[in-house]
Design a protein that fits this description.
about 130 residues, mainly alpha, 6 helices
Amino acid sequence: MGMGDPTARLSGWPRSSTAERDIPDTIAYGLASLRDMNGDSMRLLIWLNNDWPDHLIPALTWFAAQPRSGVSQTFVKYLIKYAGPEMLERAFGKRRLRELLQRYPGWGDPAGLRGRFDGFGGTDGLPN
């Protein structure tokens, strides 16, 4: 690759990734909504089921679990329970999931609540 060589040379990989403290706008809206619910867990579950997209639940869970988020720990536990460890592991990887479950032990239900509601007035395995 001399001076007259037309091939471009990439200098290497970026040395840092995006900063985690930069919260995307949609997640910031979700965190504000969680703070506005004032501890109403039923309202949280209805909001998650009806209004919040499933693919954004892991990101909302991660940012809500940060100490400076202002979201109550009870809501973070509900988010972990709602998503379930399979969904969170696909989104975070095993290391971050382990960190999250160490902070909130006993909330990693294998099924998660997200898959339990059938949308027709009942839940899996229970009579209507």
